[in-house]
Amino acid sequence: MIPTFKHNCTGCMFIGKIELLDMQLDFYVCSGGSAHKTSYIVRFGDQPGEYYSTAEDILDVLLARDKKTTNGHLILALRQWYKDYVRKEKQKKETK
């Protein structure tokens, strides 16, 4: 699977993509951000500002605030992709 959109951060790892609300969405996990915290990114275009990024610990807060908005849908999709990613990574480690 390859990303739909350009993403220039070398610290990011592409983890998948979906279509949601007639939008293509690319998902990334980034460990190259400030304060050495992991960020979770959903990109919906090639332009520099066409993405949504947040730290794991505030995904639920943002979702509760923005539940019925486009941002809320993006946050929900990002959270679900992140949970799936973590589950798959855990399974990989357990099988080694």
Number of strands: 4
User: How widely separated are the two ends?
Assistant: 24 Å
Q: What amount of the residues lies in strands?
A: 25-35%
Q: Please tell me how large the radius of gyration is.
A: 13 Å
The main sheet comes to: 4 strands, antiparallel
Shape: globular
Order of helices and strands: EEEEHH
State the low-pLDDT regions, or none: none
Query: What structural class do helix, strand and pairing data support?
Result: alpha+beta
| Average pLDDT figure | 76
Structural domain count = 1
Major sheet: arrangement of strands:
1-2-3-4
- Helix content, binned percent: 25-40%
Question: Number of helical runs?
Answer: 2
Strand-helix topology:
Elements: E1 12-20, E2 23-30, E3 39-43, E4 51-55, H1 59-66, H2 70-95
Antiparallel strand pairs: 1-2, 2-3, 3-4
Structural key phrases:
alpha+beta, four-stranded antiparallel sheet, 4 strands, 35% helix, globular
Q: Your description of this structure?
A:
The protein is of the alpha+beta class and 96 residues long. The protein has one domain. 35% of the residues lie in helices and 28% in strands. It has helices at 59-66, 70-95; strands at 12-20, 23-30, 39-43, 51-55. A hairpin with an 8-residue loop joins strand 2 (23-30) and strand 3. The mean pLDDT is 76.
